[in-house]
Amino acid sequence: MTPQISQLKELALPVPEFSYFPQTWGWLALLLVVLLVIAVWAVLRWRHQRRNRYRREALLRLSQLQDASHDQAHRIHALRELPELLKRVALSMPDSPQVANLSGNHWQDFLQNTSPTPLPADLSQQLSVLAYAPKEQLKNFPQEQLDKLFATCRQWIEAHHVAA
Q: Are 111 and 156 in contact (CB under 8 A)?
């Protein structure tokens, strides 16, 4: 006579010879410390990402403006927006300093003081030219000079110092 399936019984699983739970409280404490360190790191990283969101958005817009400056149809609008972009970045800085009314030498001093690397001494004048020059002058602006100006603006946006 052969056994039927209904007569089969499941075998009991063997009990492990060791416990999966740590034997001392030190391992549990170490696990909690590691989890706490990871949680603190995650929170600080999230705060850093949130705090620098304005930089990422500004760099994206700067790239779009630089691409538009190569197209004659959009060149004037892109060049007029560049000084405005730098001012918006300065206004968006956490614990934003009073920069809304800065112009000329005061604006140049602010840009220089917040930059970790030296900026051209005439950066604010170049930005003023882009903001207020006649359209014909902007159309004939040398592309080499514009590329240097965009590179300087990118450098400032990426690396400017924010008082924490």
A: yes
**Cα gap 157→90, rounded to integer Å:** 9
pLDDT, position 44: 97
Token couple for 29: 């404490």
Asked if residue 160 lies in contact with residue 101, where contact means CB atoms within 8 angstroms, the answer is: no
List, for residues 125-155, the tens digit of each pLDDT value: 888 888 888 888 888 888 888 899 999 999 9
Where exactly are the structural domains of the chain?
A: 53-159
Helices (H), the chain: 25-51, 53-69, 75-92, 104-114, 123-132, 135-139, 143-159
Spatial contact of 159 and 115, defined as CB atoms under 8 Å apart? yes
Query: Which residue type sits at 45?
Result: R
Q: How far apart are CA 98 and CA 107, in angstroms?
A: 11
